[in-house]
């Protein structure tokens, strides 16, 4: 009987996805935490001029932007002018949360030319909110006010703040780089049904001077979108000595992240 009981326990074990990871894997958002893409509206046709397409097609499972090109890096018109990103904090943001948010911004200020500044009258700016579901951002400057969500439940981590802010200034996910197959193996058989699109590679891409980096703040962890968290790895490095971690387990951007930011923004 004891043997049977143990066996049943093993079969029914269903490791829980940590709240901080679940908050970044929102089922209705592109790759889990991208709310939208600068210059793209849901249903927009693919531009005819392929030379203008810097970015990859996303997978068919994502209905919002499924027929659109996906950026490795956004076109210049969707960058923040002068690298200055005005922001406001939503009314839900507590002083404790503000401290974490400012820590994330400080990482940009110490390593890059990006400057997050409290908004005065700027037309284009970010509103950071903590009372929506999940961690998410738009990619690039979409024009006007754009929100960036750091859910009180699961997103108040310096690494998550940096990750979402890096989306906001125009970056996508490292593990979706076109050259990622040289560095990781994606185990689709372990990916939650319906989420395979989250691992689509960039098809049209533009990178800014840095090679693939396992430790990028834009790289997901080894159990990303795993149906069996903590057991079945979905992203496995070709180098067995590498341990992939989630953004929330990181405390600063990688130097390669900073270099790409500075290259993209010309500073
Ligand atoms: Zn992300």
From TrEMBL:
<protein>
    <recommendedName>
        <fullName>Metalloendopeptidase</fullName>
        <ecNumber>3.4.24.-</ecNumber>
    </recommendedName>
</protein>
<dbReference type="GO" id="GO:0006508">
    <property type="term" value="P:proteolysis"/>
</dbReference>
<dbReference type="GO" id="GO:0004222">
    <property type="term" value="F:metalloendopeptidase activity"/>
</dbReference>
<keyword id="KW-0479">Metal-binding</keyword>
<dbReference type="Pfam" id="PF01400">
    <property type="entry name" value="Astacin"/>
</dbReference>
<dbReference type="InterPro" id="IPR024079">
    <property type="entry name" value="MetalloPept_cat_dom_sf"/>
</dbReference>
<keyword id="KW-0378">Hydrolase</keyword>
<feature type="binding site">
    <location>
        <position position="173"/>
    </location>
    <ligand>
        <name>Zn(2+)</name>
    </ligand>
</feature>
<feature type="binding site">
    <location>
        <position position="167"/>
    </location>
    <ligand>
        <name>Zn(2+)</name>
    </ligand>
</feature>
<feature type="domain" description="Peptidase M12A">
    <location>
        <begin position="71"/>
        <end position="267"/>
    </location>
</feature>
<keyword id="KW-0482">Metalloprotease</keyword>
<dbReference type="InterPro" id="IPR034035">
    <property type="entry name" value="Astacin-like_dom"/>
</dbReference>
<feature type="active site">
    <location>
        <position position="164"/>
    </location>
</feature>
<dbReference type="InterPro" id="IPR001506">
    <property type="entry name" value="Peptidase_M12A"/>
</dbReference>
<keyword id="KW-0645">Protease</keyword>
<keyword id="KW-0862">Zinc</keyword>
<dbReference type="InterPro" id="IPR006026">
    <property type="entry name" value="Peptidase_Metallo"/>
</dbReference>
<feature type="binding site">
    <location>
        <position position="163"/>
    </location>
    <ligand>
        <name>Zn(2+)</name>
    </ligand>
</feature>
<dbReference type="GO" id="GO:0008270">
    <property type="term" value="F:zinc ion binding"/>
</dbReference>
């Amino acid at each position: 009987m004891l043997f049977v009981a143990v066996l049943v326990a093993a079969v029914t074990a269903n490791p829980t996805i940590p709240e901080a990871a679940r908050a970044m894997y929102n089922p209705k958002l592109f790759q889990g935490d991208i709310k939208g893409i600068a210059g793209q509206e849901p249903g927009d046709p693919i531009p005819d001029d392929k030379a203008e397409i810097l970015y990859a097609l996303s997978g068919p499972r994502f209905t919002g932007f499924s027929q659109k090109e996906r950026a490795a890096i956004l076109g210049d018109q969707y960058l923040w002018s002068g690298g200055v990103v005005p922001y406001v904090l939503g009314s839900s943001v507590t002083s404790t949360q503000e401290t974490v948010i400012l820590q994330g911004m400080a990482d940009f200020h110490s390593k890059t030319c990006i400057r997050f500044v409290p908004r005065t009258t700027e037309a284009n700016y970010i509103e950071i909110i903590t009372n929506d579901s999940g961690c998410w951002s738009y990619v690039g400057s979409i024009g006007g006010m754009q929100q960036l969500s750091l859910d009180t439940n699961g997103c108040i981590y310096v690494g998550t703040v940096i990750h979402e802010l890096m989306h906001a200034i125009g970056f996508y996910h490292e593990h979706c780089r076109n050259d990622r197959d040289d560095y990781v193996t994606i185990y689709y058989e372990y990916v939650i049904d319906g989420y395979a699109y989250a691992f689509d590679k960039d098809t049209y891409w533009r990178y800014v001077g840095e090679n693939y980096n396992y430790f990028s703040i834009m790289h997901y962890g080894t159990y990303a979108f795993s149906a069996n968290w903590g057991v079945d790895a979905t992203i496995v490095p070709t180098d067995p000595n590498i341990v992939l971690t989630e953004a929330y387990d990181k405390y600063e951007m990688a130097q390669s992240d900073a270099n790409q930011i500075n290259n993209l923004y010309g500073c």
